[in-house]
């Protein structure tokens, strides 16, 4: 599909020539259109993340002084790998202090290499959630989600992986049939170099999901590559990249497999 970004940018220049309320309404319209195009692209089978970020950037420029609108951009920016902008958008609503907000902020900080503040933010979310759970203000399902999300963010950043694994294990104990939690536990074992256990949980996650998921496929491909199951790893990584072409780590591992795979059998 042809990008609408250039048309939107031209429309922004043409439409925003007014002033006052009319100008703000026009700005809102163009920003909403750019936001919608970005989220539609993210939901597509093979999203072009550069185009997503460009549309989000246009919306950001048009509504830079609108904290509520910027909060809407934070999640899509994060999904598209625009962690610096995602962080700015989350921080635009600085009055928010719930666990999800702290987890997303912490995850962005870790992705940006800011390990200490990122870890502190995640630990703050965990401490608050544990207190609310102990006081009966948070149910088990919600608490399991916090445990998993904090644990997975730490595992992905390769920070406090042993402690993070225990958090994820607790989440799986509470909700053993949630595939995202089982996948997180498998990936935690992978990060710890325990590849057979990782494969067990990742295969279980894939069965629970019942459809191809690019993240689970990437994790499966990585662990089977480590176990020397190269043909299987190649299949899983190829399927993962078909669903998410932006996964450069999966692409790197797949390229490495070309040096390990035996030549095709001659006819």
Question: What is this structure, in a nutshell?
Answer:
Helix content is 75%, strand content 0%. Helix 6 (99-111) packs antiparallel against helix 7.
Topology, element by element:
Blueprint: H1 5-15, H2 20-43, H3 49-62, H4 67-79, H5 83-92, H6 99-111, H7 115-134, H8 140-156, H9 161-174, H10 179-191, H11 195-209, H12 214-226, H13 230-243, H14 248-257
Could you explain how this protein is built, in words?
With 267 residues, this protein is mainly α. It is built from 14 helices and no strands. The protein has three domains: 27-81; 97-175, Serine Threonine Protein Phosphatase 5, Tetratricopeptide repeat (Alpha Horseshoe), CATH 1.25.40; 177-259, Tetratricopeptide repeat domain (Serine Threonine Protein Phosphatase 5, Tetratricopeptide repeat), CATH 1.25.40. The protein is 75% helix and 0% strand. Helix 1 (5-15) runs antiparallel to helix 2 (20-43) and helix 3 (49-62) packs antiparallel against helix 4.
List keywords for this structure.
mainly alpha, 267 residues, 0% strand, Serine Threonine Protein Phosphatase 5, Tetratricopeptide repeat, 14 helices, 75% helix
Radius of gyration, in Å, reads 21 Å
CATH architecture of the largest domain: Alpha Horseshoe
Strand content: under 5%
Determine the CATH superfamily of the largest domain.
Tetratricopeptide repeat domain
* Secondary structure tally, helices: 14
Find the structural class using helix and strand composition: mainly alpha
Q: Low-confidence parts, pLDDT < 50 over ≥5 residues?
A: 1-17
What is the N-to-C succession of helices and strands?
A: HHHHHHHHHHHHHH
Shape, principal axes of CA atoms: globular
Number of strands: 0
First-last Cα distance:
41 Å
- Please give the domain count: 3
